Amino acid sequence: MSDQVEKSLVVLSDDEIIQREFEALLEDYRHTSHRQKIEIITKAFNFAKAAHKGVRRRSGEPYILHPIAVARIVVSEIGLGSTSICSALLHDVVEDTDYTVEDIENLFGKKIAQIVDGLTKISGGVFGEQASVQAENFRKLLLTMSEDIRVILIKIADRLHNMRTLGSMPPAKQYKIAGETQYIYAPLAHRLGLFPIKTELENLSFKYEHPDTYAMIEKKLAEDTDARMEFYNHFSTPIKERLTEMGYEFTLSARIKSVYSIWKKMSTRNIPFEEVYDILALRIVFKPKEGMSEKDQCWMIYSAITAIYKPHPERIRDWISTPKANGYEALHVTVMGHDGRWVEVQIRTERMHEIAERGFAAHWKYKTGEKDDSELDKWLKTIKDMLKNPEPNAIDFMDTFKLNLFASEIFVFTPKGDIKTLPQGATALDFAFMLHSDLGCRCLGAKVNHKLVPLSYVLKGGDQVEILSSKRQNPQPEWLDFVVTAKAKSRLKAYFRKEDRNAITKGEQMLSEVLAKVGREAGVFEVNKLLSYYQLVQPSDMYLQIGRGLLNIEEDVPKVFPVPKQQNIILRYLKKPFGGSDTKPVEEVKNEKPDKKHVMVLTDEGMEKTYRLSFCCHPIPGDDVLGYVDDSNTVMVHKLQCPVATKLKSSYGERILALEWAVHKVVTFPETIEVKGIDKLGVVIEVLHVISEQHSLNIREIHVVADAGIFTGRFVVFVHDTSEIRALCDSLLKIREINSVMRIETMAEK
Question: Where would I find the TGS domain in this sequence (predicted)?
C-alpha cells in the first residue's frame, strides 16, 4: 500500500511540474501583442499531454515538458503567435504516437496541421539519424520552408531546447548533434536574424565539443567581471549624461562577447585570451523623437559620442543606410576610451533592437497580417525554382543554400523558353554552370537576346540566354571573378584544387630531387630558407610554382644551399638527440599496424577496429578527438575543431564515435612550437637548453628569424602528448626575453 502511495505522489509531482510550465507558457503569451487565443493553446496542450502520457525523455523528465519548452522559446524568444505555439506543442505527436496529420487537421485546422506535417517530414530528413547523406532530405526541408517559414523557426526552437538539455546524451551523440547545430542551425538562425539564438547555439555546441576550453574561457571571463564593469561604468557615464541632455529615452547595456566568439578569435589569430581586446561593447537602444527620421537621430547620437571619444576611421558600420538582407539595422562605431582602449558602440532604435533580437521573420505577415514585399517574401516565392537543380552532394547543397539565402533573384529564359532563376548579379558563366557543371567548364561565351557576349556578361531579368561551348575549353583562374553563385564557385574551386594538388605533388617531388643533389632533405629548415629566398609564405605556394615551372630550382637551390667545406656546428649538434628520450619518433613506427590498446579506447562501445590519426589535423594524445568509421571499418581520428570533422559530424552522425586516449607515452609525434621574444645574445641557446636539458625532448628542426630587435623561432620537437607541450610552453615563458610561446596546430581547410 505504501508503494502505491509513493507512486501516486511521483505522478502528482510530475503533474504539478507540467502544469507549472504550461502556466509559465501562458504567462509569456499574455505579455505579447498577439490576439489572445488561450483556448486553442490549452486544447493543444491537453491533446499533446495525453498523447505523450507515460513517455519520458532520456533525462527522466516527462516528455511533454519538451514541447512546452519549445513553445516557450517560440513565443518569448522568436515572437510568434498562437498558431506557432500550438504547432510547437504538437510537433512530435504525429512522429511519436498513433495520431495522424488528418487527426490534427480535424481538431486544430488546416494551417496547424500543415506546419506539424512539415516538422514531421524533416524530422527524419536532414535533421534525422541519417543526417545530410542525401540531397533529397535537404530539398524536403527547403520545400517545406518555402510553404511556411514558421516550420524552420519552430525547428530552430526545437534544436535550441535539445542543445540546452544535451548533457543527458552519450558523447558520440553529443558530437553529432553539436556538429550539425554548428554547421546547419546556427547559420540558419543567423540568416533569419535570430542573433541571440545563433549565439547560444554556437556557445552550446562549443561547450560540448571542447568542455575544458569552454570552462577555461568562462572562468577567465568571470575573473575579469569586476574590472570589466568598472571600466564600463567609467566609459558609459559621459555618454549617459550627453544623451540625457539631448532629451532621449534610452537604455545602455554592456554586450559581452560570447565564449565561442572569443575562442574563434583566439584560434584564428593564434592569440591568448588576454590579447582579445573587444570582449566588451556598449549598446545604446533609444526611443526616437517624433518629427525626425530614425536614421538622422542615429547619426546625431553618433556625433555626440564621437565628440566625447575619438572614432576609429576604418571601423564604422552603417547598417541603417543599407540594412542587412535579414533585416538587421544599426550603426556601429569603434571609439577609443580615455585609457587608450578601443570599444565598439552599437546605436539602435527600439524598433531596430526588436528586429535584431527576434529576427526579421518574426515581423513577417503572420504577425501583422500585412502583405509586404520584403526580401524574405521574394526569397520564399522563388526557392522552389532554385531547388530544381540541387547539388548532388547534400553538404554542397547546404553551402549553395546558405550563400543564396535572401539574395534578390532574376528570371532568365533558355532558347526553348524555359524559365530559370538566378541570383541578381549572376553572369552568363553562372547560367552555364546552373544548367550543367560540364557545360560550365566547357563554356566559351554566350548569346544573350541573340547577341554574342563574354562569359562575364551580367544577366538582366528577362534575358534569353544560349551557351556556346567547346570540348577543347578548360576553366581559367580568372573565371572565379566572373561568378557569384555557390555552385559555380564550388565547381571551379574543385577543378582548380585538383589541378593544384597535381602540381603541388609534382613540385614537392622535384624539390626533393634537387635538394638531394646538394646533400639536403626537404625538411622544415630547408623549406623555410627557400620560402624566405622566394619571398613566399606558404610551402604549398612554393610547391605549386615549382610544379608549374615558374621557379628555377635547379639554379636557385645550389645558391641557397652551397655544399659546405666543413659542416656547420649547429647542424652537427641537431643531428644528435638533445634529450635522453628512449622512445622512437613517430616516423620510426609509422609502418607498424596501429594497436587499439596503444593508441586509444572507445568510451561507448567495445568493437575491435583499426585506428588511424588523420593527416588533415594531426591529433596527438591529449587533444580533444572523435572517431569517424570509414567504409573499411577503420576509425579515422580527428581533432574536434578540425573543419573536416565538422562536416563529418554534420553529414554522417551515425558513424561518429566518442574517443579518449589510452596510453600517452608510447610513441612520439613532431609538433611545432613558435617562440617570440626580444632578440638578445644567447636567448636561442637558453631556449635550446630548456627543450633539451630540462624537458629531454628531441629536436628535429629549428628556424629562427630576427628583425628589428624581435626574434621569431619555430622549433619542431618530438612529444608524447599535449601535457608535454603545455609544460614546455610554461617553462619557455619563464625566460625573461620570451613574450609568447604557442603550439602551431595543423588544420585542414574547409
Answer: 408-469
